[in-house]
Amino acid sequence: MKKIKKVFIIFTILVTGIVIVDQMGFSQANYKGTYNQTEEDELQNSLAQKIIRFHVIADNDSDASQNLKLKVKDKTLDYMKNLLHGDEDLDATRKILEENLLNIENFALEVVKSEGYEYNVSADFETCYFPIKEYGSLIFPAGDYEALRIKLGKAEGRNWWCVMYPNLCFVNGAYAVVSDEVKETLENMLTPDEYHMLLDGSKTRISFKYLNFLNQ
To answer: Phi-psi bin for 164: left (phi > 0), alpha (psi -120 to 50), beta?
Structure first.
Protein backbone atom coordinates (compact mmCIF):
# COMPACT_ATOMS: atom_id res chain seq x y z
CA MET A 1 0.00 0.00 0.00
CA LYS A 2 2.84 2.39 0.90
CA LYS A 3 4.56 1.57 -2.41
CA ILE A 4 1.41 2.39 -4.39
CA LYS A 5 1.01 5.67 -2.48
CA LYS A 6 4.63 6.60 -3.19
CA VAL A 7 4.25 5.87 -6.91
CA PHE A 8 1.07 7.98 -7.01
CA ILE A 9 2.85 10.94 -5.37
CA ILE A 10 5.77 10.74 -7.81
CA PHE A 11 3.36 10.51 -10.75
CA THR A 12 1.45 13.58 -9.50
CA ILE A 13 4.65 15.59 -9.16
CA LEU A 14 5.77 14.62 -12.67
CA VAL A 15 2.43 15.53 -14.24
CA THR A 16 2.35 18.87 -12.40
CA GLY A 17 5.89 19.65 -13.55
CA ILE A 18 5.05 18.82 -17.16
CA VAL A 19 2.02 21.12 -17.07
CA ILE A 20 4.04 24.00 -15.60
CA VAL A 21 6.85 23.65 -18.15
CA ASP A 22 4.33 23.34 -20.98
CA GLN A 23 2.56 26.54 -19.90
CA MET A 24 5.85 28.40 -19.60
CA GLY A 25 6.93 27.13 -22.95
CA PHE A 26 3.68 28.41 -24.43
CA SER A 27 4.26 31.84 -22.87
CA GLN A 28 7.80 31.88 -24.22
CA ALA A 29 6.70 30.81 -27.70
CA ASN A 30 3.88 33.34 -27.67
CA TYR A 31 6.33 36.12 -26.87
CA LYS A 32 8.72 35.12 -29.65
CA GLY A 33 5.83 34.74 -32.03
CA THR A 34 4.63 38.25 -31.20
CA TYR A 35 8.00 40.03 -31.25
CA ASN A 36 10.66 38.73 -33.61
CA GLN A 37 14.37 39.55 -33.45
CA THR A 38 14.03 42.37 -35.97
CA GLU A 39 11.39 44.07 -33.83
CA GLU A 40 13.51 43.64 -30.70
CA ASP A 41 16.49 45.22 -32.52
CA GLU A 42 14.26 48.09 -33.62
CA LEU A 43 13.20 48.62 -30.00
CA GLN A 44 16.83 48.81 -28.91
CA ASN A 45 17.70 51.23 -31.70
CA SER A 46 14.76 53.44 -30.76
CA LEU A 47 15.64 53.39 -27.05
CA ALA A 48 19.27 54.20 -27.82
CA GLN A 49 18.17 57.52 -29.29
CA LYS A 50 15.98 58.41 -26.31
CA ILE A 51 17.78 57.40 -23.11
CA ILE A 52 21.13 58.11 -21.42
CA ARG A 53 23.01 55.63 -19.22
CA PHE A 54 25.36 56.14 -16.28
CA HIS A 55 28.37 53.82 -16.13
CA VAL A 56 31.12 53.41 -13.50
CA ILE A 57 34.00 51.00 -14.14
CA ALA A 58 36.24 49.81 -11.30
CA ASP A 59 40.03 49.61 -11.54
CA ASN A 60 39.96 45.85 -10.83
CA ASP A 61 37.86 43.12 -9.24
CA SER A 62 39.31 43.23 -5.72
CA ASP A 63 36.83 43.83 -2.91
CA ALA A 64 38.47 47.17 -2.12
CA SER A 65 38.26 48.38 -5.70
CA GLN A 66 34.65 47.24 -6.07
CA ASN A 67 33.69 49.01 -2.83
CA LEU A 68 35.38 52.17 -4.09
CA LYS A 69 33.41 51.93 -7.33
CA LEU A 70 30.13 51.83 -5.38
CA LYS A 71 31.15 54.81 -3.24
CA VAL A 72 32.02 56.82 -6.35
CA LYS A 73 28.70 55.79 -7.87
CA ASP A 74 26.64 56.78 -4.81
CA LYS A 75 28.37 60.10 -4.21
CA THR A 76 28.41 61.07 -7.89
CA LEU A 77 24.68 60.38 -8.18
CA ASP A 78 24.11 62.62 -5.14
CA TYR A 79 26.28 65.29 -6.78
CA MET A 80 24.29 64.97 -10.02
CA LYS A 81 21.15 66.02 -8.15
CA ASN A 82 22.65 69.52 -8.06
CA LEU A 83 22.94 69.49 -11.86
CA LEU A 84 19.81 67.61 -12.90
CA HIS A 85 16.55 68.56 -11.23
CA GLY A 86 14.31 66.00 -12.91
CA ASP A 87 12.40 68.31 -15.25
CA GLU A 88 14.96 68.29 -18.07
CA ASP A 89 14.24 66.63 -21.40
CA LEU A 90 16.76 64.43 -23.24
CA ASP A 91 18.57 67.27 -25.03
CA ALA A 92 18.82 69.39 -21.89
CA THR A 93 20.16 66.41 -19.90
CA ARG A 94 22.77 65.69 -22.57
CA LYS A 95 23.86 69.34 -22.67
CA ILE A 96 24.21 69.56 -18.89
CA LEU A 97 26.30 66.40 -18.77
CA GLU A 98 28.57 67.49 -21.61
CA GLU A 99 29.10 70.96 -20.12
CA ASN A 100 29.92 69.52 -16.69
CA LEU A 101 32.18 66.62 -17.63
CA LEU A 102 35.24 68.22 -16.07
CA ASN A 103 33.35 69.05 -12.87
CA ILE A 104 32.02 65.50 -12.66
CA GLU A 105 35.48 64.08 -13.27
CA ASN A 106 37.04 66.30 -10.59
CA PHE A 107 34.30 65.38 -8.12
CA ALA A 108 34.82 61.64 -8.70
CA LEU A 109 38.57 62.15 -8.35
CA GLU A 110 38.07 63.84 -4.98
CA VAL A 111 35.97 60.88 -3.82
CA VAL A 112 38.76 58.50 -4.83
CA LYS A 113 41.39 60.59 -3.02
CA SER A 114 39.23 60.88 0.11
CA GLU A 115 39.17 57.07 0.26
CA GLY A 116 42.97 56.97 0.19
CA TYR A 117 43.52 55.93 -3.44
CA GLU A 118 45.66 57.48 -6.16
CA TYR A 119 43.74 56.17 -9.17
CA ASN A 120 43.40 58.28 -12.26
CA VAL A 121 39.77 59.15 -13.02
CA SER A 122 38.17 60.04 -16.34
CA ALA A 123 34.62 61.12 -17.17
CA ASP A 124 33.38 60.94 -20.75
CA PHE A 125 30.11 61.18 -22.59
CA GLU A 126 30.22 58.43 -25.20
CA THR A 127 28.39 55.54 -26.86
CA CYS A 128 29.16 52.08 -25.49
CA TYR A 129 27.65 48.60 -25.21
CA PHE A 130 25.44 47.55 -22.28
CA PRO A 131 23.95 44.11 -21.51
CA ILE A 132 20.27 43.61 -20.74
CA LYS A 133 19.04 45.57 -17.71
CA GLU A 134 15.92 44.92 -15.65
CA TYR A 135 14.03 47.53 -13.63
CA GLY A 136 10.95 46.10 -11.99
CA SER A 137 8.41 45.58 -14.77
CA LEU A 138 10.69 47.06 -17.46
CA ILE A 139 13.51 45.36 -19.34
CA PHE A 140 15.93 47.33 -21.49
CA PRO A 141 17.50 45.23 -24.28
CA ALA A 142 21.25 44.90 -24.70
CA GLY A 143 22.96 47.17 -27.21
CA ASP A 144 24.83 50.45 -27.71
CA TYR A 145 23.66 53.48 -25.72
CA GLU A 146 24.89 56.99 -24.94
CA ALA A 147 26.36 57.14 -21.46
CA LEU A 148 28.12 59.26 -18.90
CA ARG A 149 31.06 56.97 -18.25
CA ILE A 150 33.42 57.21 -15.27
CA LYS A 151 36.57 55.09 -15.40
CA LEU A 152 38.61 54.44 -12.27
CA GLY A 153 42.32 53.61 -12.70
CA LYS A 154 42.84 50.93 -15.35
CA ALA A 155 39.07 50.38 -15.62
CA GLU A 156 39.52 46.61 -15.85
CA GLY A 157 37.12 45.59 -13.08
CA ARG A 158 33.40 44.86 -12.92
CA ASN A 159 31.18 47.82 -13.65
CA TRP A 160 27.93 49.34 -12.44
CA TRP A 161 25.35 51.02 -14.66
CA CYS A 162 21.86 52.45 -14.69
CA VAL A 163 19.53 54.51 -16.89
CA MET A 164 20.17 58.18 -16.02
CA TYR A 165 17.52 59.59 -18.35
CA PRO A 166 14.74 59.01 -17.57
CA ASN A 167 16.04 58.55 -14.04
CA LEU A 168 16.10 54.87 -13.05
CA CYS A 169 19.40 55.03 -11.15
CA PHE A 170 17.62 54.66 -7.82
CA VAL A 171 15.49 51.70 -8.96
CA ASN A 172 17.40 48.55 -8.14
CA GLY A 173 16.64 45.06 -9.40
CA ALA A 174 13.82 42.98 -10.81
CA TYR A 175 11.47 43.43 -7.85
CA ALA A 176 11.76 47.21 -7.53
CA VAL A 177 8.89 49.54 -8.36
CA VAL A 178 9.31 52.00 -11.22
CA SER A 179 7.52 55.28 -10.53
CA ASP A 180 4.48 56.25 -12.57
CA GLU A 181 6.32 59.44 -13.59
CA VAL A 182 9.14 57.48 -15.20
CA LYS A 183 6.69 55.10 -16.87
CA GLU A 184 4.78 58.07 -18.25
CA THR A 185 8.00 59.59 -19.63
CA LEU A 186 8.89 56.32 -21.34
CA GLU A 187 5.37 55.89 -22.67
CA ASN A 188 5.43 59.39 -24.16
CA MET A 189 8.81 58.94 -25.83
CA LEU A 190 8.07 55.49 -27.32
CA THR A 191 5.44 54.20 -29.70
CA PRO A 192 2.67 52.10 -28.06
CA ASP A 193 4.19 48.90 -29.51
CA GLU A 194 7.68 49.77 -28.22
CA TYR A 195 6.38 50.58 -24.75
CA HIS A 196 4.46 47.32 -24.51
CA MET A 197 7.54 45.40 -25.67
CA LEU A 198 9.48 47.01 -22.83
CA LEU A 199 6.84 45.74 -20.40
CA ASP A 200 6.34 42.32 -22.04
CA GLY A 201 10.04 41.55 -21.76
CA SER A 202 9.66 41.04 -18.00
CA LYS A 203 7.14 38.23 -18.56
CA THR A 204 9.62 36.40 -20.77
CA ARG A 205 12.40 36.78 -18.20
CA ILE A 206 10.16 35.26 -15.49
CA SER A 207 9.56 32.21 -17.70
CA PHE A 208 13.26 31.82 -18.37
CA LYS A 209 14.09 32.01 -14.66
CA TYR A 210 11.68 29.22 -13.81
CA LEU A 211 12.84 27.08 -16.70
CA ASN A 212 16.46 27.53 -15.65
CA PHE A 213 15.52 26.51 -12.09
CA LEU A 214 13.75 23.36 -13.30
CA ASN A 215 16.74 22.41 -15.44
CA GLN A 216 19.26 22.64 -12.58
So the answer is: alpha
- Would you say 187 and 168 are in contact if contact means Cβ atoms under 8 Å apart? no
Q: What is the β-pairing status of strands 52-57 and 143-152?
A: parallel
121-130/52-57 β-pairing: unpaired
Whole-model pTM: value is 0.72
The tens digit of pLDDT for each residue in 31-56 reads: 343 556 787 788 899 999 999 999 99
